[in-house]
Structures are given as structure tokens and as C-alpha cells.
Amino acid sequence: MSNQVLFENKYDFDDKSLKKYVKTITKGSRISALFVTVAGVIFAIMEYRNNSKIFSAVLGGIAIVGLLAYFITVPRTLKNIRNQENILSEKIIQITFNHMNIFENNKERKVKFGEIVSVLEDDESMYLMVDKTKGVIIKKSGFTKGTFEEFKKFIDKKFIRQQPTTGG
After folding, report:
1. What is the pLDDT of residues 53-63, one digit of tens each?
2. Per the confidence metrics, is the pTM higher than 0.70?
3. Longest dimension (CA), the chain
4. pLDDT tens digit string along 86-96?
5. Concatenated DSSP letters for the chain?
């Protein structure tokens, strides 16, 4: 039972999918950078009105750094991912009860469900993240065995069981 393929997901990973993946995984960082920018501008204006021009300039500099971080995060992450070994290729993901087998570039990789730290989703894909920037991409339209709805129920059950519990 544990090695039986329950679901199979097959798709060609193209540049559009890569950009969408990067935008999804960097969303938190970009929101934080935007928050720093807005806060920096507001506090810089307040300090400028209080005639604290040096502190206002420092806060303005922080706002500029936040704005740069907001605009640089996606292109920089895209560049780093593209530098990896032939990321744009056909992917076949076979999901069993305990793990996923990922076939790409004539290589096979195994990811156990215990390695998944978070699950992200957009309108086209689900991302099973194994760390902050690396994850397994499941295309909603790419199922050749099973359906996305069945897979979502399956992964929700798997992921809930892995969450640490805290006493209250």
C-alpha cells in the first residue's frame, strides 16, 4: 500500500509557471518590504515636520531600502532558481501514501511528506514547501491519475497530522 501510486501529476514547467511560483513563495518578503517602505516614509515625514532632518534622512534611507527589496526580491529569486540545473523541463510527480517520487531531467528524487513545512496554493498550482524557497509544484490541471480535489483532501490530512501540537 505505501508504494502504490495514488496520484500522478505530469506537466511541462515553463517560464510562466516559474514566475508564478516565485511570486507566491516571495509574497511574505515583498509584503514585509512594502510595510518597511510605508512605515519609513510616514516616520520620515513626521520627523521632518519636527525639524529632525538627520533622523528623517535615515528613515527615508530605510524606506528606499525597503522599496528596493520589494522590487529586487522576485528578479533575484528568479535568477537564483534559473541558475540551478535545467529547472524548465517536464516533471512527473508520483504520489504514494508516504512520499512523492519526482522525475525530471532523467533523474528521480524522493520527498517524504514529513519534509513538508508548509503548503501554498494559487489559482493554477499547489506548492508543497520543504523549506522557505524550495518546494514541490503540483499543477492542478496536471493530474493523470486521481483528481486535484482528491489530492487536496489527501494532502490536507497528511499535513494536519504533521503539525506540532502545543499545550495550552
Report:
1. 899 999 999 99
2. yes
3. 72
4. 676 788 999 99
5. -TTS--EEEEEE--HHHHHHHHHHHTHHHHHHHHHHHHHHHHHHHHHHHTT-HHHHHHHHHHHHHHHHHHHHHHHHHHHHHHTSTT-SSEEEEEE-SSEEEEEETTEEEEEEGGG--EEEE-SSEEEEESSSS-EEEEETT-EEES-HHHHHHHHHHHHHHHSPP---
